[in-house]
Amino acid sequence: MKIVIAVAVMLSMLVATPADASDIVGPGRFCGYSPMIDLRDGEKVTTLEGGIHGGSFRWEGVFGTLEVYGIGWARRPKGRIVKAHSSNSPARFAQKRVEGLYQIAIWNGEHGAAYFTSPKPFTSPQLEAIDRVELFEEGQSPSDCKLRTIFSWE
């Protein structure tokens, strides 16, 4: 019986659970799941789901709306890199279609990744917004985070 309970607890940790939707409004540095975004006036993040290694949120601003899934313990996304990784920005991958949506991934060259989705092809202002995003990974504590998501068992 102890083994069954232990397995059930371990499996429950792997499943993403809905977070209470809450709005995080800029300006200020938002650190959530892996992405770090210096939110500008008028931009906001609405948390959607969170799990052990990542979570999702909606990012809104003058560029429109992007759905974002950040992972703090990820592998290299599949696809072609169109903007190389540098010391201050992650690599950006080519836009592709996934399950009827358009998707762009970014990756810090190690374990931090984020996937941005949109129902329409990405616009220049959306690409500029994505290029403002930095990444951290599990075990790191980014500084200057005025706004953040936190892990909770509740």
Task: Give descriptors for this structure.
154 residues, ten-stranded antiparallel β-sheet, 2 helices, globular, disordered N terminus
Total E-strand runs = 14
Number of helices: 2
Span between N and C termini? Answer: 25 Å
Helical content class: 10-25%
The coarse overall form would be globular
Q: What is the overall pLDDT average? A: 83
Low-confidence stretches: 1-20
- Residue share in β-strands: 35-45%
Taking the sheet with the most strands, its summary is: 10 strands, antiparallel
Rg estimate, integer Å: 16 Å
Quickly give the structural class. Answer: mainly beta
Write down the secondary-structure element order: HEEEEEEEEEEEEHEE
Summarize the structure.
The chain is mostly beta strands and 154 residues long. The chain has two helices and 14 strands.
List the helices and strands and how they pair.
Layout (H helix, E strand, L loop, with lengths): L1 H13 L2 E2 L4 E3 L2 E4 L3 E5 L4 E7 L3 E8 L2 E8 L9 E3 L7 E3 L2 E3 L2 E7 L5 E6 L5 H7 L3 E2 L11 E2 L6
Parallel strand pairs: 3-14
Antiparallel strand pairs: 1-5, 2-5, 3-4, 4-13, 5-6, 6-7, 7-12, 8-9, 9-11, 10-11, 11-12
